[in-house]
UniProtKB/TrEMBL annotation:
Domain of life: Bacteria
UniProt keyword terms in alphabetical order: Acyltransferase, Membrane, Transferase, Transmembrane, Transmembrane helix
Organism this protein belongs to: Nitrospirillum iridis
This protein's record includes keyword Chloroplast: no
Transmembrane segments: 55-74, 94-113, 133-152, 159-178, 223-244, 256-275, 281-305, 317-342, 370-391
Stated name of the protein: Putative acyltransferase
Gene Ontology molecular-function annotations: acyltransferase activity
Length: 399
């Protein structure tokens, strides 16, 4: 009796390239020289509306959906059972969630605080943020992955639509606790929405601390209720992965992505009239718009890399794309270290090493916003060098 080896499904280099571009842009926008001087495309929209920066996180979740489908398809073909697949999905989700909590806790004490180290450690615990970027990725991966084990294309698409319509109904139809506002008035203020009320209920523990976003403390951009439409973003990525895995000519698959992308953008802009595009709330119109944009940008990347064969430019993006978790976690921890953990005497004060580098190297040479961008580009270049060295040694962080 012979056993036929199971080949991995067609691997498109362009998927790693697109994910790498997304991660590199994420590092760029997260690490300016100073937050006070940033070009507007590199800022998040203050509330309603969107900027290019607002595309980064949904693009990554969209790619999580695609890779989840491709991975499950291969593992099923290899003979892995549903129980094994579910355990792998849950294990990966727990690791990602734990990494997110670690980043929020690191370095274990309040860097900007004063007083004894023990008091600062307690302050850190009492303000330890529970929601976060990796935490949302973890939840979306687990839910989308487990649903993919049970639902087909129609089921996943129907559930995504139900999540988006249901979220719209809740956010505009349920009176906001304390104010009773509904409709567009219920979306006017960050801390005055149904989502914010849910976040405060779940994560503001009174004497045991407030575990919401430090910049607000009354709501969280990665909060609980707004994670539901983020799951829809991931499910739409799963559907895109199903489409890309079909045995059709690659140009046909690219055309399908473009058509879906145009439809998503139009739907998002129309929906914006009654449910504004808003990244912090992850509104349904935001999901439609960003999923459409992801389809368009991914389709363009596949066309350039796979159809036209333009690959010489892809290496820098590739090294980010094959090590995305290491790039994100490492860059976040490094930013915390240079942003406050390590300090130096500078200009008659004790300053974080990042401020010293920025003010000594970049600020004297360029206008404020250009200097801030130059620092961010240098930070991305540093991480490219680290990831390139790891890539050459075939070292990849697998979660």
């Amino acid at each position: 009796m012979s056993v036929t080896p199971v080949d991995k499904p067609e691997r498109l280099l362009s998927l790693d390239v697109f994910r790498g571009l997304t991660v590199a842009l994420m590092v760029l926008v997260n690490d300016p020289g100073t937050w006070s001087d940033i070009y507007w495309p590199l800022r998040h929209a203050k509330w309603h509306g969107w900027t290019p920066t607002d595309l980064v996180f949904p693009f990554f979740l969209f790619m999580v959906g695609i890779t989840t489908h491709l991975s499950l398809t291969w593992r099923r073909a290899r003979g892995d059972g549903a129980g094994d697949l579910a355990r792998q999905i849950l294990q990966r989700g727990l690791i990602l969630f734990g990494l997110g909590l670690f980043i929020a806790w690191f370095p274990g004490y309040a860097v900007a605080g004063h007083g004894a180290l023990g008091d600062r450690a307690v302050a850190q615990l009492l303000s330890w943020r529970i929601p976060g970027v990796l935490q949302r990725i973890a939840v979306c991966h687990v839910v989308a992955g487990l649903l993919s084990l049970r639902l087909g294309t129609r089921g996943q698409g129907g559930l995504a639509a139900l999540l988006l319509l249901g979220y719209w109904a809740v956010m505009t139809g349920v009176p906001v606790p304390g104010t009773g506002e509904t409709g567009l008035a219920a979306l006017a203020h960050p801390g005055g929405t149904v989502a914010a009320a849910v976040d405060r209920t779940l994560f503001d523990w009174g004497a045991w601390g407030n575990h919401l976003w430090a910049s607000a403390k009354t709501w969280d951009p990665e909060g609980a209720l707004s994670t539901l439409p983020a799951i829809a973003t991931t499910l739409l990525g799963v559907l895109a992965g199903r489409w890309l895995g079909r045995p059709l000519p690659l140009p046909t698959r690219v055309q399908g992505l473009i058509v879906a992308g145009v439809a998503g953008v139009i739907l998002g802009e129309v929906w914006d009239l009654v449910f504004p595009i808003n990244k912090s709330l992850w509104t349904s119109s935001f999901v439609a718009l960003t999923a459409g944009m992801a389809c368009l940008c991914l389709g363009a990347t596949i066309w350039m890399v796979e159809v036209r064969g333009w690959r010489r430019w892809t290496r820098p993006a590739l090294v980010f794309g094959v090590n995305p978790i290491l790039a994100y976690v490492g860059s976040e921890l490094m930013a915390i270290v240079i942003g406050g953990v390590i300090t130096l005497p500078w200009d008659h004060r004790i300053a974080p090493v990042q401020d010293v580098i920025y003010e000594a190297v970049f600020y004297p040479l360029l206008p404020e916003k250009a200097a801030s961008l130059a620092f961010a580009l240098a930070f991305v270049a540093l991480w490219w060098a680290i990831l390139e060295a790891l890539y050459r040694r075939r070292i990849f962080l697998k979660v």
